[in-house]
Amino acid sequence: MKTGRAALRTLVTGACAVGLAVGLQGQAWAGTVTIYAPGDAGSATWNQDPSGSIPGDAIRACDTKSDGWGIEAALDYNYDGVIDRYVDTRGHNAGYCSPWKGGDLPEGKSVRMYVTPVKGGSYGPSTYIDVAA
Fold first, then answer.
1. What is the C-alpha separation between 85 and 105, in angstroms, rounded?
2. Closest CA to 98 of 79, 115, 111, 121
3. Phi, psi angle pair for 49, to nearest 5°
4. Beta bridge partners of residue 29, listed in sequence order
5. Is the dihedral of CA 120, 121, 126, 128 positive or negative?
6. Which of 18, 20, 98, 99 has the most CB within a 10 Å radius?
7. Exposed, middle or buried, 56 (CB in 10 Å: 0-12/13-18/19+)?
8. Each residue of 46-105: pLDDT tens digit?
9. Keywords for this entry (predicted)?
10. Measured between alpha carbons, how far is residue 38 from residues 14, 67, 117, 126, 132 in Å?
């Protein structure tokens, strides 16, 4: 009977974890947040508050895959579909991260951060998350 209880406990714990993950989607995240491009080709990182040499309200892009594609990290802070700030890894080999690009935004403002594979003027599929300034 102990085996059945252990299996039930594992099932309930897993269901709670899935519920928590689904429940948090669409929420604004603060602090430092990293999202990954499709295919794990790279990432975009958001840094909310200044920390040492890293500015606040800043983004950077990192390319981790030698596939001929770079990575672009972008912010839309007016939610109007127009990119207001971006950095990319174009022209660099995999293993490169762009410099941080920051700029003061109103405290608590929600912004949308995108990560997109790029090759010249071509764009791959984007992934995004809402973060808090």
1. 12
2. 115
3. -115, 145
4. 131
5. positive
6. 98
7. middle
8. 999 999 999 999 999 999 999 999 999 999 999 999 999 999 999 999 999 999 999 999
9. Signal
10. 25, 13, 8, 7, 23
